[in-house]
Amino acid sequence: MNTVTVIxxxxxxxxxxxxxxxxxxxxxLRAQDSVLIKPNIVVSRKEWTGVNTxxxxxxxxxxxxxxxxxxxxxxxxxxxxxxxxxxxxxxxGYHELEDRYGLRLVDLERDxxxxxxxxxxxxxxxxxxxxxxxxxxxxxxxxxxxxHGQTKITCSLKNLKGVMPRAMKTRFHGVDxxxxxxxxxxxxxxxxxxxxGLKGDLMSETGRTPVQMERILLGYNPVEVDSVVxxxxxxxxxxxxxxxxxAEAGLGSCELSGIRLLALNRPTKTFRxxxxxxxxxxxxCVIDAxxxxxxxxxxxxxxxxxxxxxxxxxxxxRFLVGQKVKFRDKDDLITVAVGQCAVKNNSADxxxxxxxxxxxxxxxxxxxxxxxxx
Length: 374
Ligand code: SF4
Description:
- The chain contains 14 helices and 16 strands.
- The protein is α/β, with parallel strands linked by helices.
- Bound molecules: iron/sulfur cluster (SF4).
- Iron/sulfur cluster is lined by residues 267, 269, 292-293, 295-296, 322, 339-341, 355-356.
């Protein structure tokens, strides 16, 4: 059974270091290898808006590579439509990494491209891939996990789009995008995936509504990593067509029962969550999340978003999350204690007694209660 490893927290450098050490993820790498790190630089906007890969995650990978004696390191990406990776690198501080570690920063849209035959069925017979990617010995995909307007989620499979020329990216949107993404995964072979799940956008790929999620994942197979991420964002992996098509083509499994999720720690009890102004207005239910870990609240937000998409009216619910919430008096609202901390301190109508409670578990409990009442 393949494993995807997750670590929770808000110290990306330490988290990446632990992930790499505990999984021995760089054991195949030789000092003389050339490594290409592919972050997700979509728009020219600061990484904390939830759109671009946090440079601290990339920096931690670079440090681990340097420790193994690797000196040929390139960080490369091609941005989304109307933006430039060069500009994104500048705004997110990637040039400081260039100076500090002597790595090469490449805007892949300015690279040369190599035509590669596509081995699986779909709209393309060949795809053009940036030469820096094709010629690297070891490719590390570092996507950010977030929502996407067209494909529901974007993570390691879709992040590969950045290795193609702009014209080819445009063509992807004129065909069956999901099939094309699966085809791309059959052409670009990735050695390691490290997912920036610190703060991803909830609504779109362009960083309007970041959600603090405080996690980083490590895996090797993009279908399996994205299946775990889909689950974390409240979707069945099969609902995301490009994941399903890639699995159908034999590129990995999208069955969660066949993927082992190994957590290196529990979410941090940092009491840092403070509700952003839009938070309570966003959903018609009552939410008390003072003192909750961001992981817990992040999973609740994703669950509520998905439940609303399914047409559920959440007005009659009250959600309690975190160590500090206290609720005793009964009223007409259905009170749901989300996570072990809230369960301990409250006599709620429904409990989700795990740490962290998954998006799937929250959705399941609320859906069953909702169907009972309606
Ligand atoms: S159950 Fe408690 S410790 Fe676990 S993630 Fe939620 S708030 Fe944090």
